[in-house]
Structures are given as C-alpha cells and as structure tokens.
Amino acid sequence: MSEEFSLQEVIDSFRLSLSDSKEIFLDQYVEGWRGLVKLLNSLGSVFGFISKDVVNKLSILVSLRGGPEGAHYLSLQSMVQYELQSGLVEGGDHPASGTRGVSGCRTLLRLHRALRWLQLFLGGVSRDEGTPPTLCSLAYSQSLSQHHPWVIRSAAGLAFRMLPPRDPFLRMLNAGEPPQAVEVLGGAVPVLGELQFRSPPAGGAPPPSKHRLHDNWSVETPLPPQVETPLPPQVETHLPPQVETQLPPQVETHLPPQVETHLPPQVETHLPPQVETHLLGVSQVGSFSPGNCSVHWAYILALLGILDSAILATLAFVLANRQDALLPPNSKDVTTGLLMSA
C-alpha cells in the first residue's frame, strides 16, 4: 500500500478480508485499517487522538496474530471462539503474553465502533446530506461518542469544525474529481457495513458473553439501552416532586390569611364609630344609614324651632314690662280696655 491515502486501495483490502464462508481475515482487515489511518492523518493533527487510538488497537491485533497462538487469530470468527473458550474476553491471563486483560475480541470491537463512525460519515458525504463538519459530528454522536468521556467528546467537536467543504474533502480521498470520488464512495460504504455484520460460522456458535462479541458486529445493538434507560427516571423522579411539594403550600397557606384577617376588621370597627360619634354627637346611635341621618336632622330642626319660640316670648315679656313703666298712671286702664276689647 502506498504512502498516500487511496480510497480504492482501502476498499480492495477490506474486500479481500471478506471470505466466501462469511469469515473476516484479520491480516487483510488490519491492512485496510492502515489505509484509513492515512485518511485520518490527512485530515489534520486535530484527528490525531482518533488515529493514535486506532494504531494502538492495530498493534495489539498484529502482536496476537504473530504470537504463539497466532493460528487462532487467522479470522475474526476463530479469534472469537478461541478467546471465549479460554476466558480471555472476561479479562483472564493471555497464554501467549502472560498479560491480563489483553483481548483481541474487545480490541476489534473498539475498531468496529470507529469503522461504524466512518461508514456513517462517508455515506452521508456520498449522498450529499450536508456539509462534512455537520455529517462527521452527527456520525460521531451515533457511534463513538457513546464510549468516550466528556473531554474527548469536546475535543472531537472542535476537530470536526476544521473539516473542509464537500468538494475539497472529496479530492482528499484521491479518487479523482468529486463526481468520480462520489462513485467510489458509493461502493465503499456497503463494504464497511458488511464488515460489521459478519458473524461466526453456523454450528460453532460460542457460549453467551456479556460483551456480545459473538453477535452481529453492529454498534446499533447496544446503543438503545444506553439512550432509553437513564433518561426517563431523571424526568419522572426529580421534576414532579419539586413542583407538587413546594409551590402549592406557599400559595394556599400565606396569601388567604392576610386577606381575611387584616382587611375586614379595619373597615368594620374603626370607620363607623368615627362617623356616628363625631358627626351626631351621641355615644350610641345604632347603625349608620341615610334614613337615620334624616331623622337626626329633623330632631335638630324641631329643637331650633322651640328655641326660637322661647326667645320670641322672652322678648315680648320684656317689652311689655318696659311699656308699663313708661305709660302714665291713667293710661294703664285705657290700654287694658283696648286689649280686652280686642
């Protein structure tokens, strides 16, 4: 394989890894991945965190293939059967290296996750479903991001923004002009998908494993439990208690007592006594109403009439006495006679 990336060479290597008996030969599989590493390196140093991880995984497969137990690592299916029977998938000591936790099955599963990301990304570019930065980010969220911590996800999001537009990206594939590159991509995407759905041969199915390595090599199988399981409990258990326990008590216990206890006493006890005692001048007059007010004014007018009659009678008496004092003695009888005749 040449030093420069060639999409056609990658496709040829992966096609050679697919046997007629539905096996995947590891030597050709590793060779195809080495071509994809060149593609990652050509995208810039920002993709170095992915290419470096892929190189480490490939070195593990190469060492197992060239080790004392290399015959068991001829194909993916033979590797799965051997490691499951030897307990290596569960983290046992490897008989070839003596190291604990080295598993070709787990290593290849991680490579398949990255292969799934490239399959979704390149498929979206070939169908012109958006810009390369958008398609790469979307493919990453559907595959690798499920298995990366927050720091790596953040770095990946920044790296995807540095991707060029569609036509310059197609030219980076070294498959001719954009129309020819799209045609080559159309043949590469099905091959990448076939690599993930190859399963062990019939009759030699290994025992069940919690890693599900003997099942179809699709990353879509373990993803739905991770997305569906943690979200509903958080929405159901935390939000409703806060709304039901804190808000209604504040509205029901504090507001109504203030309205009922303070306002009515002020209106009933203070205002009527002031109007009745100061305006009418009496201590207890009963309830205040327009009818009572007219009765009180009638009393006042009658009282004024009595006072007016008394004043007039007093003045008449005074004037009469003064006339008696001023008249001559013989005129008193004349005055009396006039009054009597009248």
TrEMBL record:
Classification via Pfam families: GLTP, L_HMGIC_fpl
Presence of the UniProt keyword Transmembrane helix in the record: yes
Source superkingdom: Eukaryota
Annotated membrane topology: Multi-pass membrane protein
Glycolipid transfer protein domain mapped to chain residues: 26-174
Keyword presence, Transcription: no
Localization annotation: Membrane
Annotated Gene3D superfamilies: Glycolipid transfer protein
Main localization (coarse): membrane
Gene Ontology biological process terms from the UniProt entry: negative regulation of interleukin-1 beta production
One MF term in the entry's GO annotations: ceramide 1-phosphate binding
UniProt keyword annotations, A-Z: Membrane, Transmembrane, Transmembrane helix
Residues annotated as transmembrane: 297-320
GO cellular component: cytosol; membrane
Family: Belongs to the GLTP family.
Full protein name: Ceramide-1-phosphate transfer protein
Organism in which the protein naturally occurs: Dissostichus eleginoides
Organism classification: Eukaryota, Metazoa, Chordata, Craniata, Vertebrata
